[in-house]
Amino acid sequence: EDPIEFLHEHKKSVVNQREIGLDSMSYENALKNALREAPDVILIGEIRDAATMQHAIAYAETGHLCLSTLHANNANQALDRIVNFFPDSAHRQLYSDLSLNLKAVVSQRLIPTVDGQRRAAVELLINTSYTAELIQKGKIHDLKEAMEQGQQRGMVTFDQALYELYREGAISLEEALNHADSRNNLALRIRLDSGMPQPPAEKKPAAKIADLEFDSNSSKAS
Questions:
Q1: At what angle do helices 75-84 and 91-101 cross, to 10 degrees?
Q2: Which of 102, 162, 205, 208 would you call most buried, defined as having the most Cβ atoms within 10 angstroms of its Cβ?
Q3: CA distance 145 to 163
Q4: Residue 74 to residue 72: CA distance in whole angstroms
Q5: What is the pLDDT of residues 69-109, one digit of tens each?
Q6: Does residue 167 lie in a domain region?
Q7: What is the Cα–Cα distance from 176 to 187, expressed in whole angstroms?
């Protein structure tokens, strides 16, 4: 970590924390030596460059759960940032590595609530077989739609999370729209679900019994 912001106590596991500049001279040295301690879980404070990302992928490939943070507005942009760490010539292999080893991307925003506090709106991308296929093909722009349709798998977009917070009465309409990825789409969903009257359905003429002819040799009407 650079720096250590919270000191974890040993409870159900042993937690060893290393601060860059004190316990290790650089991220590179710390990451090279991390596997020598036979860890079950590795947390990298922040991924800032391609070298750190390569170590994270290597840890995942060797069966370790690797957690890290990255500055991005949402799950899509997080993957875009990862890809942009590397030259174009490395993208094909990177997409393959991410599709095989990525477990999930969690993105959050703290939203002011109506009572003066803050609540986290959380976007969650889970690497299912379908999202893995999109990542492998480099179709990062299609992941948003996959998340919107993947609620049964546990996925959720920011706009869906904001809608639920607004529906609970935790945040105002203004805050929900201000923090939405698609202000128009969220506003439309809220409007449709608010009970506004919808245009009446087109009335179809009722069938008249007199128009039906019955065949005495058949039980069906024609």
A1: 140
A2: 162
A3: 16
A4: 6
A5: 999 999 999 999 999 999 999 999 999 999 999 999 999 99
A6: no
A7: 9
Phi and psi at residue 33, in whole multiples of 5°? -95, -5
Position 6 pLDDT exceeds 80 = yes
Residue 195's contacts (CB-CB under 8 Å, 6 or more residues apart) are none
Nearest to 177 by CA among 121, 116, 130, 133: 121
Query: Does residue 148 belong to any structural domain of this protein?
Result: no
Evaluate whether residue 221 is within a structural domain: no
Domain membership of residue 31 (yes or no) is yes
User: Which residues are registered as beta bridge partners of 43?
Assistant: 67
Tell me the one-letter amino acid at 165. Answer: L
Hey, what are 176's tokens?
């929900």
- Contact predicate 121/162, CB 8 Å: yes
Query: Domain tally for the chain?
Result: 1
Each residue of 134-147: pLDDT tens digit?
999 999 999 999 99
What per-residue confidence (pLDDT) applies to 195? 61
Of how many residues is the chain composed?
222
